[in-house]
Amino acid sequence: MRNPLIPDILAILKEHSQGISEFDLLKALKARHAMLSQLAEDSNLLLFRQHFLIMNALYQLQTSLWQEEQLALEISGTRISLVYGKQHPSSSSNTNVSDSADAKLAAYYSDWDEYVKTDKEDVEQLLQSFYQGIASVDERKDALKVLALHSDFMNDKEAIKRQYRKLARDAHPDHGGDPERFISLRQAYECLMHSFV
To answer: Start-end ranges of CATH 1.10.287 in the chain?
Structure first.
């Protein structure tokens, strides 16, 4: 199904040659389409549906602009912009994790069933998962501090193991170490190792 927001989104993007945030794009679209404020009674579900419609339109537009005009539309979490004279992201020679994440996002937002089947409870679960994810990042940062590691090591499993073993050996109660320090080190280690499961 062709998204009815596409013509207005294209017009707004042309007005903002340096790009635009999704928030500002939504504000501009609401001024043109009152129906965007009437998609749901629940505020979280309303925001999900507004976001979904915009992203669906953007991914449809990204595909058609490239196929028909060889014009790239860059979609990121902070900025949406038309880019002239640029190679299409999927034809880049350095395919990486980001490319596969972009493809998954495009597939998700292109599937109208996702829009239809997502209800208030689903959105609440998504938000809860998001908030838990933030908390776990903070907990992991605290755990790195306990192990005297820089945040660059958050995803380095072997470095975390080495540092834990080094510090735990000195803090182990059987070797005259501080039992509380040893437990703190173990808790930090478990917190960080949990993220690799």
So the answer is: 122-194
Helix, strand or coil, per DSSP, at residue 73: strand
Architecture of domain 122-194: Orthogonal Bundle (1.10)
Round to whole Å and give the CA distance between 147 and 171.
12
Give the global pTM: 0.66
Q: How many CB atoms lie within 10 A of CB 19?
A: 16
Angle at 77 between CA 22 and CA 140, to 5 degrees: 140
Total residue length of the chain: 197
* Cα–Cα distance, 105 to 85 (Å, whole number): 24
Look at residue 166 in the predicted model and tell me its pLDDT: 95
| Gyration radius from the chain CA atoms | 23
CA torsion, points 113, 116, 119, 125, in degrees to nearest 10? 20
